[in-house]
Design brief:
about 160 residues; alpha+beta; 3-stranded antiparallel beta sheet; 10 strands
């Protein structure tokens, strides 16, 4: 939203979604603009979730869909990436894994665990149960408040 109609043509070189001039702003026009923004953000998130992640495991490279990941566990110098289709041992740090994964779907709940939020079956004050996982995953005290606040929005 701007007061400068003369910059409208230039704005599309910057990949803007819409260019609304204040003097022409109506409720309907603003609503259409916001719909474009919401669709663009949703598309970006969907692409992020569907885009396979490249994981090097020894001499092999695997392409793992984020939706297939159950959790990531730190084990000494290695990560254990547990998916619906197997377990991989990528040579990455927890921080690198956090950056690679779509933040919409994953949460760090312990210094040694990142989980796929979409796979949660139940949560207690100190653990999480995930689909296809036969054990509880601990919630670390440092991560508990932020994680529990985040999942409170789902209810």
């Amino acid at each position: 939203v701007t007061d400068y109609p003369e910059y409208a043509a230039c704005s599309y070189e910057l990949d803007v979604l819409d260019y609304v001039i204040k003097s022409m702003l109506t409720k309907d026009r603003l609503s259409k603009c916001l719909d474009k923004v919401i669709r663009a953000v949703a598309d970006k998130w969907d692409n992020e979730v569907l885009q396979p992640i490249k994981i090097k495991d020894g001499y092999s490279t695997h392409f793992v869909k984020p939706k297939d990941i159950l959790y990531i566990r730190a084990q000494g110098d290695y990560m254990q990436l547990v998916t619906l289709h197997g377990i991989w041992l990528p040579l990455k740090t927890m921080r690198e894994m956090e950056i690679m994964l779509p933040s919409k779907c994953f949460a760090r709940i312990h210094r040694s665990y990142i989980i796929n939020i979409d796979k949660i079956i139940s949560v207690t004050a100190n653990s999480v149960t995930l689909e296809h996982v036969n054990h509880k995953i601990p919630i670390g005290p440092i991560y508990a408040e932020a994680f529990l606040a985040r999942i409170a929005f789902f209810g």
